User: Fold this.
Amino acid sequence: MAGKEVIVLTEQIERDFLPYVRKPSRYIGGEVNQVKKELSQCDLTVALCFPDVYEVAMSYPGLLIIYDIVNCIDGVAAERVFAPWIDAEPILREKKVPLFSLESRAALKSFDIVGFSLTNELCYSNVLNMLDLGGINIRSSARGEGEPLIIAGGGMANCCEPMAEFIDLFVLGEGEEAVVELIDLIRQQKKAGAAKSATLLRAAREFDWAYVPALYTVRESRVTGSERRNAVVQDFENAPVPLRPIVPFAEAVQERVCVEIMRGCPGRCRFCQASFCRRPVRYRSAEKIVEIAKACYRSTGFDTVSLLSLSTADYPHLEELTSSLNQYFRDKYVGLSLPSLRVDQQLKLVPELLTSVRKSGLTIAVEAAGERLRQIINKPLKDSDLFAAVEAAYRAGWQKLKLYFMVGLPGETEADIKAIVDVSCQLAKLRKTIDGKTAQINITVSWLVPKPHTPFGWLGQKPKAYFEWAKDLILDEKRNLRANFLHFKFHDINRSVLESAIGRGDRRLCDVIEAAWQGGARFDLWDECLNYELWRKAFEKSGINLEQAAQRQFAPDEILPWEHLGGPDKKYLLGHFEKAMEQAKEIEN
Assistant:
């Protein structure tokens, strides 16, 4: 790992690229609170890549936390690199401008480390595209000593076999402490002139959260090698938080002060990968959260404070926290946002506490319309609590409601699907008892994608035809009830099928992902870009039927493509799975 020449592309970017793109603000850097070091004077340089467009990337707190941590290390620099939008890629290729960082406008291949945040199965084609645009070989086996180390982390690292041929090392679990340890090791190895392979081997030996795919044997699609464990930040109270977040130039999806108040979730919804992989549950003190929120507000001027967690209603000091935040921010016209609220008896108190929240809408993840089906997914939500919470929200001034439901659950019946409309209708009309008006309710319906490291990971996904039938059933029921005040939005069925097929795939899918990228797959999370037929052909090229892969059911004793990649004990998950199947049979009988 010898020293690298830093290639700065400022002149070429300003002459051949920026004048021709629709939104130059995505690519210019220089925002308030960015950190820029002299790359040539640093011992180690890191390109932090997010495989989506600027507006999405700048809304992802995890990336900005790592950015802050790395830049706080003397002699180490981190710079941001995001996926160029579809108008920009052809310009980069035509003008032969390599993909570059925002801070120094340095070519991607100039960095010692190129790190990717993997947040969804459908960002993988963009990862390959960014490597290629940066002049870096997409396959690990084809890269030379002069090319950067390619590292990836994020939620998808725990089921990363479909990307194993492209990434040198995956960081499993939480990155705040792991990234510091890894950078220290790589820095030492670079100074010692160690080969890339020696650095990767040492990392795998020293850190049980480091997964190096090249060190594992694959036979008949089964991976053999030592099991890895997730990195866990034990002292969450004092975990690093950027107190001077970057203020985006282009309008980001989320422009607000984001403070993570707890990590992990006391609930165990059997479809939720995060609740099973991010453990144990840890909390920040109310005092620390308020301190962080004040500092971030002063350095950004954002007009909303968002309290982040998997289940904010489970935060034990919510009343004290919201009261303290309201006291400080009330006269500053700063609102408070609480996403991820879980409905239970505690939530009935929440609307009264949140006097500073803008009352445009309250979001509740109901998931299943009936209590019996909620028992199967292990979501202990009673109808009485749901209705009581919504009534309390109406009384506190909320006028709109947003509900999330899921279709394709085990034990689900036609009546359960129709009940999504019935329950939503009742909740809308509940407002009449408060002010005589019917509430406008937005309902998002998603399709179950069985996830690795969850009890439902053994399940096959329902066929596309089932989801299409369910969608028609819901819309027919809405018409029958003349419920024009209900506004339904459905996840793209093709996208959910792809997520199931890729997310639970093995290393054979590396060829599929490369074929899809070569065929033009880009920004598969965007409705205007997803090309399902292209992906179907890419699967077919490798001898795999896409929809059969999505519907694949794993046997309880089968070796799973992800079981060596962190996550809970397999027996524990199987216990949940078997319990769910028993409950589903009881409903069927």
Summary: The chain has 21 helices and 17 strands. The radius of gyration is 24 Å.
